[in-house]
Amino acid sequence: MPEAAAHAVAHVVAQDAHRSATDFLAAVGGDRLVREMVALFVAYTPNRIAAMHSAADRRDTRGLCREAFALRAAAMQLGLSEVERVAASIECASLDAPARDAANLLADLVHAYDAAVSRLQPAA
What global pTM score does this model have? Predict the structure, then answer.
């Protein structure tokens, strides 16, 4: 499958996952819950990413893993599969080779977060 087609398929799958997760939240707590969850994710994720950068700089593998785990869980609740995937990669890398992989993975995470925020804004 050509790379552009694979990217398009992945984008549709990610949108479906996001829709399913937010539909579930809306069914449980209404649109207000969805808006609150999105607002919390958007408000707290930049600080969490900054903490991950700091932990990586200090070679604090536990701190990096803890922050990645928390971010992965938050992304999963909103169906943000790319943020979830990158956070899981950071979680694993923090245990295996933190210094080598953290910088690239954190850059990928920032990109995934920015893309997720642009998709979330209509829900907020």
Answer: 0.74
